Amino acid sequence: MASTPNPSHSIQTINASRTNFPSLPMNKPIHKKLHISLNKSSLRVESCSTAKYNDVEEMDKIKRLQNGSDVRGVALQGEKGRSVDLTPPAVEAIAESFGEWVINGLEKEKGVRVSLGKDPRISGNMLSVAVFAGLSRAGCMVFDMGLATTPACFMSTILPPFQYDASIMMTASHLPYTRNGLKFFTKKGGLTSPEVEEICDKAARKYANRLAKVSTRLPITPTMVDFMSAYAKHLREIIKERVNHPSHYDTPLKGFQIIVNAGNGSGGFFTWDVLDKLGADTFGSLHLNPDGMFPNHIPNPEDKTAMALTRAGVLKNKADLGIVFDTDVDRSGVVDSEGNTINGDRLIALMSAIVLKEHPSTTIVTDARTSMALTKFIRNKGGQHCLYRVGYRNVIDKGVNLNKDGIETHLMMETSGHGALKENHFLDDGAYMVVKIIIEMVRMKLEGSEGDIGSLIEDLEEPLESAEVRMIVLSEPRNAKAKAVEAIEAFRTHIEQGSLPGWELDACGDCWVSDGCLVDTNDDPAAIDAFMYRAKVSDEQNGEHGWVHLRQSIHNPNIAVNLQSTIPGGCQSMAKVLIDRFLLPSGMDKILDVSQIDKYARTGNLS
After folding, report:
1. How many Cα atoms occupy the beta-carbon half-sphere of 569 within 13 Å?
2. Which of 10, 115, 173, 193 is catalytic?
3. Is the pTM of this model over 0.85?
4. Does the first or last residue of the chain, that is N or C, have fewer Cβ atoms within 10 Å of its Cβ?
């Protein structure tokens, strides 16, 4: 269905009007050409100055945008102390380098097809033009999915009839409206940190070598496609097939009330295009309309306001389930019918209980910030628990590698809410995670169970204490990473030398992970993107009673310190040992701001 050319329309104004997901026939993708002003065959991207730059400084600007396996930066003014660094020229250089990387990997010069989706951030339209320009410069055919989710972007590479060669999602997840970023996919899944580093290195050279950053021309225009309808249908079919309702197959959610809180992100589609069409009552749902300013709360299943509002909605409407999505729907959390919030360790436990019913004794990979109680819960259900590096890409890739090595691993989850399943292409998909929970909820009712999904984790013990503090790296941004690594390696050395009595680098053993849940000891160890170590803590009186986890942040120049304890005052006691026996004696206070952890160690106060 082609649109009529109109020279007065820009790509920004066309995309800005698309604030929902249209429902379209599924027998073929619907194509609509974007006709962009200035002339009939080109697109102009206005950007910044033509002044000559210092090459090293300019290259560093691009390299610092790498955020593990993603790219993130400040796209709009408005943050105190932060200047705009995710500019159209930067995005264009990164998109071009990604396009070239895809083309080289596929070893074909023509016909490479790349899709782009975005969340509702107000910088999305401006930066989308830069992505299209970069991909086209690389020689790719480009397809505009409009408002989309991160999991949908990956699925656009494998679901027929779309099956693009690669995809980019423009999002900064739960970060403020001033931020934006890029996530990259091929048919194999999300890119790894080393792959994104390679792309950013190439982009940095392009960016530094382009003295004129004023105008970019596109010989072709992007093709608009409605993929979200196909993705929603895919999710609906999974629910119908697996519930297999004996009396109303096509409406298996009839009689259930489910409240969705989309946080004004991209998750509203799940309400009207999945739940409603399956017969659910979604009255009471919250913040479904996309709004890139996120006026109500941070779209984040870890956000207390988001969970509290959803809990209130569930209780007020006597709903069966509440769902909270993050902005781009690669994470989720839920609220059961009694108003119990289920995120973090509780969500991992719930998914573990569901998966272990289907795959007894499977291994479950999590990041190393999960509780000792979760390990006990998984083992009591018959599963194995592998603690691994923080970072959703690390956790997922560990599961992929364990399966390759013959260790059956069906679930990989991070405490942030990122969760991936082997059955779903190892994709961290918040909507698919909720689909699994909904299917289990309906099955339980059909089986005559009086409990709700919360009953599946009623025997999960809660840690008595937990705390998190940050230590800012006292360094120029370009040296912050090296300084953070220096401090974390010193932490490891102190433990190995016995300078912290009762502290031992943790290891799960069965999954070839040692040295504080960081190092792979098999023949094909994964590259380390950020340094971190977990130490288990014991004493004669209490035995093993807690752990301390230090990790280099890939987002900001700081080190995160997580502590958890099963005894009263345990976290404060461990913080005191850390400051008195490691940070101060080793001179780490010269390269780290230790004031926050010092205050906590002395007073027990985190505020």
Report:
1. 6
2. 173
3. yes
4. C
